[in-house]
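Board notes (copied after class):
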Amino acid sequence: MDPVSVGLVGAGPWAEMAHAPMLAKGPHTRLAGVWARRPEAAARLGAPVYERIEELFDNCEAVAFCVPPAVQAELAIKAAAAGKALLLEKPLADSIEGARKLAEAVAEHGVASQMILTMRYARQTRDFLARCREIDPFGGHAANISGVLLGDHPFGTPWRKERGALLDVGPHVIDLLDAALGKVTGVRAHGDARQWTGLLLEHEGGAVSEASLCMAAPGDTPPSYFAVYGRGGSAVLEAFDDDPLETVAEEFARTVRQGGGHPLDAAHGLRLQEIVVSAEEQLAGP
């Protein structure tokens, strides 16, 4: 299979650390160029820099996004209209309206889409989910705690500081519990999105789970934790010892060549956003 030529939108820290190296590494993808609102940042990524995003679209088969959610929602719709496959970050957008418009654009233009829900591509996660299917699960719990919103952390960006852990790491946690215990059918939330958020999730088939989210904890924090319990035993997610991004690139290339069909597509991203928004509305109160 020839490498898929992928244009990158965005040139921030995560683009420099993850997206650009992943796409340039090959053999499944090729970094065809970069567009960013700061051309000087884009120039550091080792690929042609385009002044106009339309020029980037003209020189690639697919487009990867590493920009704030509101910007992704706006520009990915343009890429879909140009017939480009989309590699999308979470969350899909900054609002449910933006997420719906993007998912609708993907469907309308018939382009392939795939989301970088990083944990789902790790070998340990797939082993964990296989074990969950064996144990007839009825419950589970998860925690994702960090200090990203404190000090001058490179990922303490304005949208994260405004919306907190629920919009940022919430999609990761909800997605994995959804995969482990069954489709999430309801959510109850309490706490504060910028401090500590607790979620009670109801799953198709009757399972329930709890999740704790925080990005304002000082000092050393434990790694993410996921555990599921069932009638046939239990499953705990082990620490990662591989690079999930290699699998992201490989599966995205396959998704592009097949014209879609990845389970973590824009429609799935919309469903996750609907759960997040429901929780945010509960935290905001009447």
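Comment from the instructor: The chain has eleven helices and eleven strands. The mean pLDDT is 96.
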